[in-house]
Amino acid sequence: xxxxxxxxxxxxxxxxxxxxxxxxxxxxxxxxxxxxxxxxxxxxxxxxxxxxxxxxxxxxxxxxxxxxxxxxxxxxxxxxxxxxxxxxxxxxxxxxxxxxxxxxxxxxxxxxxxxxxxxxxxxxxxxxxxxxxxxxxxxxxxxxxxxxxxxxxxxxxxxxxxxxxxxxxxxxxxxxxxxxxxxxxxxxxxxxxxxxxxxxxxxxxxxxxxxxxxxxxxxxxxxxxxxxxxxxxxxxxxxx
Amino acid sequence: xxxxxxxxxxxxxxxxxxxxxxxxxxxxxxxxxxxxxxxxxxxxxxxxxxxxxxxxxxxxxxxxxxxxxxxxxxxxxxxxxxxxxxxxxxxxxxxxxxxxxxxxxxxxxxxxxxxxxxxxxxxxxxxxxxxxxxxxxxxxxxxxxxxxxxxxxxxxxxxxxxxxxxxxxxxxxxxxxxxxxxxxxxxxxxxxxxxxxxxxxxxxxxxxxxxxxxxxxxxxxxxx
Lengths: 240, 224
Known about the structure:
The complex is a heterodimer. Chain A is an all-alpha fold. Chain A has helices at residues 7-39, 53-80, 85-115, 123-143, 148-161, 165-175, 196-239. Chain B is mainly α. Chain B is built from ten helices and no strands. Chain B has helices at 3-20, 22-43, 47-70, 72-79, 82-88, 93-122, 130-154, 161-172, 174-188, 194-223. The mean pLDDT of chain B is 89. Classes of the chains: A mainly alpha, B mainly alpha. At the A-B interface, helix 4 and helix 5 of A face helix 8 and helix 10 of B.
């Protein structure tokens, strides 16, 4: 991990990974969308609205995955003082918030025809909404201090406290059985209750979203590294 | 002096300070009563409806009244430098944080809980529900004070801290709110309130070590 601690080396490796991640994101998302929107037959109960799921489910997974990676970055920043960890944490927050928002909006669009309502205060929906607010809290706490380093450290502590949310979200559908259906793909009993023909576009989309996350994260981290280098060059020029 | 003696000193000092500024403390109670009394205006004075909504209304009003004073948990001591003096005295930061959390609870959570039966009376809450309401508020406000201590330490020295604390606290306080209201509602529908209260107790015990680690970590950043 400390191999990547040198920002210059990180940028060079990021430059090499970026085209691959971007290409993978475009291709996998295109294939997944085509499969989900055209190839998969309409569901016998949900009809055509099942196609919303091919965006909704991967986005919801990403909402949690991004938070997990953000919290991991926060922890490694606090524990090992990894120089890029806080930059990664800061860069991941808006991406995670966007995925959470996408999951909430697509879920709402699906809920209107299926449940007959845009929103219910069910355990899963409420806990994902809370996750969205935690993302917003992280984004505003980073910006709230005159000393950027202090903001990063405070935010890292907040991000770690917020980790309690992840198990609550994952198991909310089992603990409070209300409107949101229980897990059908990753279950405690190891049985997948979704049909094979419906499953593969979800997985392809999830991989595509992950590649998208990696690509955007790399661009954002690179931009931050270059901005701080620019700042130090300007300071050096001002001193001279 | 032992750390516990130091913490006891700090608590007595803070209690004395709170007593000299009792108007400030009473303001939290006034805010609680005022917030709760807005609901009959907003949803109409129907006693049956109000009695049904009373647990939720009281809980939200108590939450707001407590959040209002959270920003001040460390602020005054931070501003005049006494927070650094206290840490130099040898009081460990975890104990300092928990003492401050207890102080916040004494000056807001406990008082709001004590005031809640009076407000519940005006909402014609059925008499058998009072013990559960009091128990849930007592336990829940302890959880909220611990959460508030973390948020107060995190935002110490931040710009617009007064706005940030609610943004950080309100999402994390939802579990407490749900359990508190569910306990009272379970009792109202002749079910047992104890599972909800036990879960809330578990949540409190979970928050205790989290606050004892997270708040000192944030304080260390602020005192750097």
